[in-house]
Amino acid sequence: MSKSISRLNPKTLPDAASIGYSQISISGPTRLALVSGQVAWRRNDGSVSDRLEEQTEQVIKNLSSALDALDATTHDIVQMRIYMTDLNDETMAEAMGQIIAFLDGSQPSLTGVGVSKLAAPELQIEVEMVVHTAG
Questions:
Q1: Where are the transmembrane segments (predicted)?
Q2: I need a surface site. Which of 51, 63, 66, 77 has the fewest CB within 10 A?
């Protein structure tokens, strides 16, 4: 049995379709949207700060754009995965402070993963989400 999957590439996020993936995939019948990992890239500007604090701010803006495209809120996030290149107590505390504020009291399942590299050498953090949508 084939299930329908919808793909979204909101104009407010980097153009993933041009390089072969979708920013958001929505699968039925439960209507879960799988949001690709968001990094500190802007739609039309490739510059990235070398500061984790500023990278996390941009990641959160990108996550917010994805939620807006889904007509969802942080309370609809089912799961988040946070990937960091320099995962330690200090960097995790710095990033998590902003992420907890972004979550606004919602408590999705969350996993933190230390990795050696992300998609570009300057990137320090990437966050992906699974979001329950209204169908």
A1: none
A2: 51
